[in-house]
Amino acid sequence: MMHCKKYLTDKELLLNNRHQIHRFSKLALDNRPLFKEITEYLPFIVTEARIGNLDYISYNPYLELLVKDGGEQLQQKGHSYILEIADLKVHREVLRRIQLFKQQDDRDSVLTYLQLLYVGDQKHWLLTNKAFLDDQNFITLGHDLSNFGLIGRTIENILEEPFLKNYEWALFESLTKTERQIIKLLAEGNCNKQVADLINTSFHTVNTHKKNIYKKLQINSISELVKLYMAAQLF
Predict the structure, then answer these.
(1) Are 167 and 89 in contact (CB under 8 A)?
(2) Bridge-partner residues for 86, per DSSP?
(3) What does the alpha-carbon distance between residue 55 and residue 26 come to, in Å, rounded to a whole number?
C-alpha cells in the first residue's frame, strides 16, 4: 500500500511562513492576475495595505471567511473593522512594532507578530508576517494558529495566560540584559547553580536576579516564567 508523504510538518509550516511572503510579493509585482487567482483559494489571510494608514487595498476571501457574519462590515469599513474585533492591548503592541518597522531602511526585512481577534464567542490567534510590497504598500500573510494542529493548540495554550491575564509579556522590556539571559537559561531547564556557572557569577547573585525578575514580571513560579518566556519569544 502506498502512503502519501507529508512534506511539511506543522512546525515547518510555521517556520516557512516567513519565507512565503517574499514569493508572494514578487508574484504580486510580476504577475498581478496570477497573484489574485492563487490567493483566492489560499487557506490563510493575504492582504495588501497602505504603509501610511494600513487601509486595505485588497484582501483574499479567507479573511471574510474568518470574520464570518462580519463580512459585510469588513467590506464597508476595511481595516477599521479589524480594529473593532481586535484585542486592544495586543493590537497596541502590534501598532508600536509596525511603526518601528516602517522606520527601517531594509526593505527586504519581515515583521512577525501575533494578533488576537474576537469573532463572535471565538478567539483567533493569528501568526502574521508583514513585508514591504513597494514604497507605498505592505503585503501581509496571516495564519490562524488553530489550523496548525497540535503545535498550534500548544502555542495557543501558552499564550492564553501570559497574554490575556495581565499582559505580562510587555513587562519584558523592563528587564536588563543579564536578567533576560538568566530567564533564557532558566527556561531551558537550568537550576540556579547551573545558571551561575554558565554566566560566571555566584549562586546568590543569580538568586537575587531571579527574585527581581519575579517581582518585575509579577509572577511567583518557574512554570509561569517558562510560559511567559515562550510567549514573549513568539511575540
Answers:
(1) yes
(2) 117
(3) 21
Other Cβ atoms less than 10 A from the Cβ of 113: the count is: 20
Residue 29 CA to residue 111 CA, distance in Å, equals 20
Residue spans of alpha helices (H) in the chain: 10-30, 32-39, 61-67, 71-77, 79-85, 88-102, 149-164, 177-187, 192-198, 203-217, 222-234
Q: What's the length of the chain?
A: 235
State how beta strands 122-132 and 137-144 pair. antiparallel
* 90-145 pLDDT per residue, tens: 888 889 889 989 988 788 888 888 888 999 888 898 989 999 999 999 999 998 88
The answer to whether residues 151 and 14 touch, using CB atoms and an 8 Å cutoff, is: yes
Reading across the β-sheet that carries 111-119, which strands appear in turn? 56-59, 45-50, 137-144, 122-132, 111-119
CB 158 within 8 A of CB 54: no
For residue 89, give the nearest of 169, 154, 155 by alpha carbon.
169
SS3 of residue 20 by DSSP: helix
Residue with cell 514573549: 232
User: Over the stretch 145-184, which tens digit does the pLDDT of each residue have?
Assistant: 887 766 566 666 666 655 545 455 556 667 888 998 998 8
All structural domains of the chain: 10-148 (3.30.450.20), 168-234 (1.10.10.10)
